[in-house]
């Protein structure tokens, strides 16, 4: 067998299984309980300081709030 056939057989079987399990794992990670707060904060970044620039201490405080 040539290298192409071996790699094609591997991609059609084990790699397909691996990528499917990886996709399911990422989906479960995103939908896990407790992650909603973090995603809402990230989604609000463009609207956080519409009227004025953020102060340095405000940015640090928000970062620490999300991390805790």
TrEMBL record:
InterPro entries: Cbb3-typ_cyt_oxidase_comp. Keywords: Membrane, Transmembrane, Transmembrane helix. The chain crosses the membrane at residues 13-31. It holds the Pfam family FixQ. CDD domains: cbb3_Oxidase_CcoQ. The keyword Membrane applies. It comes from the Bacteria. This is Cytochrome c oxidase, cbb3-type subunit IV.
């Amino acid at each position: 067998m040539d290298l192409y056939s071996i790699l094609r057989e591997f991609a059609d079987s084990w790699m397909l299984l691996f990528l499917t399990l990886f996709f399911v794992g990422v989906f479960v990670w995103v939908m896990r309980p407790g992650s909603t707060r973090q995603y809402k904060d990230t989604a609000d970044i463009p609207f956080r300081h519409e009227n004025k620039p953020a102060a340095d201490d405000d940015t640090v405080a928000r970062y620490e709030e999300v991390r805790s």
